[in-house]
């Protein structure tokens, strides 16, 4: 079961990075919809939950910290846009 937990944590961390990166670099900031912004904020939260399920402590806290930093960054960006 451990490889599946690790894979899920890494997958959602990558989604947390790639989706907002795509969203904020390819679209005009004024044309980004509210649904896209909510999804960009939701993915790091889910990534943090999956990262905390990883049994290896070093990887667990590294991925959780990355996801929390991404959440704070995109929360600031969302507030700045609206």
TrEMBL record:
Record-annotated membrane-spanning stretches: 7-25, 37-54, 61-79
Source domain of life is: Bacteria
Q: Which UniProt keywords apply?
A: Membrane, Transmembrane, Transmembrane helix
Identification of the protein by name: Uncharacterized protein
Gene source species? Trichococcus shcherbakoviae subsp. psychrophilus
């Amino acid at each position: 079961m451990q490889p599946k937990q690790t894979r899920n944590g890494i997958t959602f961390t990558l989604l947390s990075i790639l989706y907002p990166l795509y969203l904020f670099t390819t679209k005009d900031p004024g044309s980004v919809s509210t649904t896209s912004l909510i999804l960009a904020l939701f993915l790091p939260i889910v990534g943090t939950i999956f990262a905390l399920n990883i049994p290896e402590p070093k990887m667990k806290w590294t991925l959780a910290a990355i996801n929390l930093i991404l959440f704070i960054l995109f929360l600031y960006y969302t507030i700045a846009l609206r």
